[in-house]
From TrEMBL:
Residues 615-813 form the Xylulose 5-phosphate/Fructose 6-phosphate phosphoketolase C-terminal domain. It comes from Tractidigestivibacter scatoligenes (Olsenella scatoligenes). Residues 17-390 form the Xylulose 5-phosphate/Fructose 6-phosphate phosphoketolase N-terminal domain. GO terms for molecular function: aldehyde-lyase activity; magnesium ion binding. Its cofactor is thiamine diphosphate. Keywords: Lyase, Thiamine pyrophosphate. Belongs to the XFP family. NCBIfam families: PRK05261.1-4, PRK05261.1-5. The lineage of its organism: Bacteria, Bacillati, Actinomycetota, Coriobacteriia, Coriobacteriales. This is Phosphoketolase. The keyword Lyase applies. It holds the Pfam family XFP.
Length: 834
């Protein structure tokens, strides 16, 4: 099912905007500005009444009505209020499905003012009554203890993008309009934000949009000239240079300048309304031509909106320029409570908006202030696309068993399968079943990470083929497709976030080492989810953000040290406090476990799912049923691998987490078995299940943990990432002091797969030798020395021959059948460099 069509999209007006509406937009702007200044400064007496009865201080409007601690940002807010007013007018006149994304980082007062004026704020906060008491509560709560944040945060209706970290407004906007053909996404880009790397490259995302099947993004560059304390680059270049820059990016720039002279506000609003209509007419023409079959990529309109920073605030304070300077960025009157002079300036500033014409004697907003606002779900705060869980539909999942690797007949450890290719086959059918609500995003690595089976059912969306002299050289490219590849992790992450925040599902894949590029983006998304889960019940659950991290550390022997970093898991662990459960971390050891994990991820909500899985040929250890059973617990003993009898205590527990560590642990177990060492094999697929039960109420209980890892036996644990991560997770667990963890030790090079393991003491001989040291180093001294010598000999073999020792490459678990075929398949594909 496609996203719902709200109103009558892409409909032109028959004539100019009426003068009544022009006057109304000015009322909206004045009201929003008053509400914004009030939020930053006032804790009481919200309408500055001389007869106000102040329980906290003297009667009348005095410095006691100003907040003790002034927190917030004014500089970008009046321009945003101006744009909100005009976008509301556009929506009402055209009945246009539209959302508003606020890129400038500190426009929170404008967002909350907007939702108060369109009525949606009181729908989720009935305690903010439409009177003086409600207005006081609305002002006081802003950036106040126990109140609301200063950004356009999830607490505010209509927001899907919080500008706390700058650079992502366009990627979120473009993600929102994908498969959403009726949507107009107005994306306001701050001119400071425009200097960030992610934003600079996100202008290019228009090359992927199909104007027929997708909505339209209208970028508005909010050019107010200054960042916190410095001018902005785009404000200090000529109009011609700036226009050429955006034309080169594929846009048709419209320039609008206001606020730098004494032009009356009615004239300014009239000019902008006329401009906005011209821009919208152009957008309607783009949509009309697309519907008529035009195949060429359009130049999309954008607006360069140039106004003074802090527009309408006092022009000077203490003899220094304020409006139109960096001094307006945050709180222009920082001493409004402390000095009478600054308080009088604040009072005059608030009075300049003529609040007596905006609020009645009871403090209610006058009806003429909201006369021309959109109604129902067309309101910016009520559009269901900004509360995507309202639109979320379950995916039609494929029958997973069709893709199961047959371990029952092949035996545990059977074959040499590329696990992520199996995931790709499963996901291809998933796409085919859910054409308009599931997408794959990736930085030119979809095929590299073995998800290319999707190309059997869909193409990569690409609307930029006009100048291709050799179309036959392009593969799987078309204007419509469920895969988007842009060589920017930021864009892939941002597009997926925008897509799922508006009610859809998806997956993005990346090389494990370079997912760090979006550490902070994932952090911001987690914070959005944490706030939602904890305290915003009116926001409906959205689908999980699914991340496949492949081409991982243990098989980056071909690209080398620069491509070896498994540390993203440690960033995610910072999100595991407070039992919010917005992060899931999976290390499936084989293809069937990966299928079980995918089933869960594709049906999850309000979380980030990080799946670490290799793409190189590897054994399949468990059946699909066994995989599902293990996943339900998070960890399991592989009793078919353990060499202890029922009820017999092991000499040592061999724990493993991750596909390559599992394979090496299994090989080490065979080495130890030949010596008569009794081993229990425990595999962990969901990392957070072993986290301290005292820190995670969904983890294994201490009793369950002990049943797996024993109360007092040594545990040798082979972990995919850094060893300290495991100790960080289990420091409060029984028997923690007996854990000996192997993991990545920041050692690597361009070398062979075996040597990559050797360098980090993760190869089977290192694991087995360490097990003997733990048990009785003196008793097993000769065997330990033999294995250590072989490790060096195997390395020398690789140096001499350029490939790994047969004892490493030819090993297959003893229960597996078709051993020769498995070895052959491993050798045939083991040299794949991508």
């Amino acid at each position: 099912m496609a996203q719902p069509v709200l109103g009558t999209p892409w409909k032109k007006l028959n004539g100019p905007v009426s003068e009544d509406e022009i006057a109304w937009v000015d009322k909206y702007w004045r009201a929003a500005n008053y509400l914004s200044v009030g939020q930053i400064y006032l804790r009481s007496n919200p309408l500055m009444r001389a007869d106000f009865k102040n329980q906290d201080g003297p009667d009348g409007f005095t410095r006691e009505d100003v907040k003790h601690r002034l927190v917030g940002h004014w500089g970008t807010t009046p321009g945003l209020n101006f744009l909100f007013g005009h976008v509301n007018r556009l929506i009402r006149d055209h009945q246009q499905n539209a959302i508003f994304l606020m890129g400038p980082g500190h426009g929170g007062p404008a967002g909350t003012a907007q939702s108060l004026l369109d009525g949606t704020y009181r729908e989720i906060r009935p305690d903010i009554t439409d009177d003086e008491a409600g207005l006081q509560k609305f002002f006081r709560q802003f950036s106040y203890p126990g109140g609301i944040p200063s950004h356009y945060a999830p607490e505010t209706p209509g927001s899907i993008h919080e500008g706390g970290e700058l650079g992502y407004v366009l990627s979120h906007a473009y993600g929102a309009v994908l498969d959403n053909p009726s949507m107009l996404a107005v994306a306001v880009v701050g001119d400071g934000e425009a200097e960030t790397g992610p934003l600079a490259t996100s202008w290019q995302t228009n090359k992927f949009m199909d104007p027929l099947t997708d909505g339209i993004v209208l970028p508005i560059l909010h050019l107010n000239g200054y960042k916190i304390a410095n001018p902005t680059i785009l404000a200090r270049i000529s109009d011609g240079e700036r226009d050429e820059f955006f034309r080169g990016m594929g846009y048709h720039p419209y320039n609008f300048v206001a606020g730098f002279d004494e032009e009356d506000h009615a004239s300014i609003h009239r000019r902008f309304a006329t401009l906005l209509e011209a821009v919208f007419d152009e957008i309607c023409d783009i949509k009309r031509r697309a519907a008529a079959g035009e195949a060429s990529r359009p130049f999309y309109p954008m607006i360069i909106f140039r106004t003074p920073k802090g527009w309408t605030c006092p022009k000077e304070i203490d003899g220094k320029k304020t409006e139109g300077s960096w001094r307006a960025h945050q709180v222009p009157l920082a001493s409004a409570r402390d000095t009478e002079a600054h308080f009088e300036v604040l009072k005059g500033w608030l009075e300049s908006y003529e609040p007596e014409g905006l609020f009645d004697e009871k403090g209610a907003i006058r009806p003429e202030v909201t006369e021309f606002m959109p109604q129902g779900e067309l309101r910016l705060g009520a559009n269901p696309n900004t509360n995507g869980g309202k639109l979320l539909e379950d995916l039609k999942l494929p029958e997973t068993s069709k893709y199961e690797i047959d371990v029952k007949n092949g035996g545990h450890g059977f074959g040499a399968t590329e696990a992520t290719r199996v995931l790709g086959e499963y996901t291809a059918e998933l796409i085919n079943n859910n054409r308009d609500k599931f997408r794959i995003f990736g930085p030119d690595e979809t095929a590299s990470n073995r998800l290319q089976p999707s190309y059997q059912v869909t193409d990569k969306q690409w609307f930029n083929g006009d100048l291709n002299d050799d179309p036959a050289n392009d593969e799987h490219l078309s204007p419509v497709g469920n895969v988007i590849e842009q060589l920017s992790e930021h864009q892939c992450e941002g597009l997926l976030e925008g897509y799922i925040l508006t009610g859809r599902h998806g997956l993005w894949s990346s090389y494990e080492s370079f997912v760090h590029i979006v550490d902070s983006m994932v952090n911001q998304h987690c914070k959005w989810l944490e706030a939602t889960v904890r305290e915003i019940p009116w926001r409906k659950p959205i689908s999980g953000l699914n991340m496949l991290l492949s081409s991982h550390v243990w098989r980056q022997d071909h690209n080398g040290f620069s491509h070896q970093d498994p540390g993203f898991v440690d960033v995610l662990l910072n999100k595991t406090f407070n039992n919010d459960h917005v992060v899931n971390i999976y290390y499936p050891a084989d293809a069937n476990l990966l299928l079980a994990v995918a089933e869960r991820c594709y049906t999850s909500t309000n979380c980030v799912n990080a799946v670490f899985a290799g793409k190189q040929p590897a054994p399949t250890w468990v059946t699909l049923d066994e995989a599902r059973e293990e996943l339900s617990a998070g960890a399991a003993e592989w009793k078919w691998a353990s060499n202890t009898a029922d009820g017999e205590e092991p000499d040592i527990v061999l724990g493993c987490c991750g596909d390559v560590p599992t394979q090496e642990t299994m090989a080490a177990l065979e080495l130890l078995d030949k010596l008569g060492v009794k081993c229990r094999l425990v595999n962990v697929v969901e990392l957070l299940k072993i986290q301290n039960a005292s820190e995670n109420d969904e983890a294994l209980s201490d009793e369950q943990f002990t049943a797996l890892f024993t109360a007092d036996k040594p545990v040798l644990f082979a972990f995919h990432a850094y060893p300290g991560t495991v100790h960080r997770l289990i420091w409060d667990r029984p028997n923690h002091d007996n854990f000996h963890v192997h993991g990545y030790e920041e050692q690597g090079s361009t070398t062979t797969p075996y040597d990559m393991l050797r360098l980090n003491h993760m190869d089977r001989w290192a694991l087995a030798a360490d097990a003997l040291r733990i048990l009785d180093a003196e008793k097993w001294a000769d065997q330990i020395a033999e294995w250590e010598q072989f490790r060096q000999d195997a390395f020398q073999f690789a140096v001499d021959n350029g490939y790994d020792h047969p004892a490493f490459t030819d090993w297959v678990w003893h229960d597996a059948k078709d051993t020769a075929a498995a070895i052959s398949a491993t050798k045939a594909t083991g040299g794949d460099n991508e």
